[in-house]
Amino acid sequence: MLPVFLFLLLILLSAADASVQDFCVGDISASDTPAGYPCKDVSHVTTNDFVFKGLGKAGNTSNIIKAAVTPAFVGQFPGVNGLGISAARLDLAPGGVVPLHTHPGGSELLVVTQGMILAGFISSANGVYYTTLHKGDTMVFPQGLLHFQVNAGGVTAVAIVTFSSPNPGLQITAFALFANSLPSALVEKVTFLDDAQVKKLKKVLGGSG
Question: Is 103 marked as a binding-site residue?
């Protein structure tokens, strides 16, 4: 009876091993989907698919928010496809800010590597959680919640950020409201701002209407 049991066990183990898929490197030449990119043929996968070298270089902060995000999402880093992780580098020049924004597809973990960053988030019950982070400090921002980062010192601040998704998505609240063609009258109704304020913000952020 024992040899039969061992034989069946070997069959089950072999079947289990055969069903394991180590990775699904994204074929970024195809279209992304809610389930991720399709898998690149394993015969075309190389070590480079699992390596990203862009986080060691400072981003360009010469913009309206004096901030730069260098993403290592699936579009830049195909090896994270299907693994539920990704990363980015955040550079904040003095006076820099990442305005209120959300990542609908994943939670965020931020680690400060240089300078000081005032960071926080707002819960769905409108609870406010914020603090000043120093080098080595870490803060988590739950998925989908509005959050922000502000340079809190006189030198450029840098952080490495990781996400619980290969493509966490991004929507910046101010840009969503004022950097598009949503009619000003409608923006005024949904924000309680007056016409002059809305027109000013649309002009600053490049919106119309």
Answer: yes
